[in-house]
Fold each of these.
Amino acid sequence: MVGRVVRVALVVDEALSRAALALGLETDPRLAVVHRLAGRVEALDRVEPRTVDVLVVEDALADGTGVEVGLRLQERDPDLAVLLLSGGDASGVVLALRDRAPRPWSHVSRRACPDPGALARAVVAAADGHAVVGPGDASAAPGRGLGLTAAQDGVLALVAQGLSNRAVAQALGLSPRSVENHLAAVYRALGAGGPDVSPRVLAALAYRTGAAPRAAG
């Protein structure tokens, strides 16, 4: 790594967690947290292009999703690295974006990576252009084992993060009709249907749990 300080924007909606994470990151002399932001609106308003090297963003924000924030900011600044911070394993989302994002995304689970030093090392690696996908082997990500194709799995990974069909299409370089067709195939493959719950919700739950839904028909 070149001898420079990596500028970090930290987007976490809970104030105490945000402060603790910022403090932990700044114990590493290679890092400087230049933004401590509470959510989507603040991030999109305050993070200017080429003023930040790595965006560390929580996957679920009170006013949106980390995936949306990362994609929007990378549109403005293709050199921005994104590290998605989640309560579980969001490596499937990172893999879905692998071939479409201008820079590789990284993912760290807060449960599997409680050590601030490990998170700091992941941020430095992301700044250097490496994709950090954790914990463990990406093949263990939610959604694996559902019998979906790679394309279907990639679409469902982003739907499970709360993105609209249009946003999924933009993220993956697909047409909205292609996304609709992939989702229709996903619903059929998973048997996601029923009178009381939308197939989209059931499919997203199946992705997160790794188990096909059991909806009453």
Amino acid sequence: MSLVLDAAAQDLLFREARTANTFTDEPVTDEQVQAIYDLVKYGPTAFNQSPLRVVLVRTPEARERLVKHMAEGNQAKTATAPLVAILAADNEFHEELPELFPHFPQAKDAFFAERPTRERSAALNAALQAGYFIVGVRAAGLAAGPMTGLDFAGVQKEFLDDDHTPLMVVNIGKPGTDAWFPRSPRLGYEDVITTV
């Protein structure tokens, strides 16, 4: 059985998509970000908890504050990308569960009353959503440069609060000159998939 998604879409989202290291100066609009979110919000999370929160870094002042928390090798990329997004997990996501999981509003207290439980669940499910977000950026015809080389505590203090844990920073835009490193190898089917 073949995939239902046509080959061009498969290439756009996966086979030809890469982590961009340079970008043009073409802006990324709020309308593009809205379209990305309106697509990826349908990706599944446990209890529909949807804990991902996104901080868009647009102003020069905010960009400067962020760049100082990036690893040295990521600073220039973050300084020049048209748009930078800080992806974070909301550890208080359970407050939204009565609305997001209406057929079992008690889930808020039955499963997520304890902060450590919420933090583990938020980290996992926001990471799932971060993957959807990256694919959504690609679906918009843009390139994403996700990075975890950063001072997480510094980014949290600078841009978030104690209820939000940063997961990664994603540079977003149209790929620039020499944007791609050579494609790295991938594991084969038989290296990953086991049938029992």
